[in-house]
Amino acid sequence: xxxxxxxxxxxxxxxxxxxxxxxxxxxxxxxxxxxxxxxxxxxxxxxxxxxxxxxxxxxxxxxxxxxxxxxxxxxxxxxxxxxxxxxxxxxxxxxxxxxxxxxxxxxxxxxxxxxxxxxxxxxxxxxxxxxxxxxxxxxxxxxxxxxxxxxxxxxxxxxxxxxxxxxxxxxxxxxxxxxxxxxxxxxxxxxxxxxx
Length: 196
Known about the structure:
The protein is mainly alpha-helical. The chain has helices spanning about 10-25, 30-55, 60-90, 95-110, 140-165, 170-190; strands at about 120-125, 130.
């Protein structure tokens, strides 16, 4: 392992766990819930794996792995919503279709670097390398779309608990896991933070 990359063991461990979960679920009998969870795990694998391979500057280059990672990051909120939709057995596809369309437009615009440019790789004094991101107000657009998708998912879950009588205990891993995921990602973009 490259000691110049702080905490590289974290994404390696995460990629390993995602891979093992995917292998286990691929061998299971599939229904809509399991398939939606497999899609979500593949997305998390691409997000984390892309970020890890970007930091390791693996072939075909950090720019490629950056794109894999950012596209998976921006696809993740819809796939979380879709998993919740399947898990609670929600009905009606209109809102889900709108959220899917918004996600697809966001991914296309992300590919063309409308929201965020590929970061520059710079060498710092002392020989360490870092990625410098340049953001503009345009990053507010995917941020707003992601907030709307997650808020819609929360409202769907709350409604299902009240109207469909979905047991809260079945949703507890999601209630604990998603906030940890959000806090981890917010913490990872704090200036000066080295923990991925």
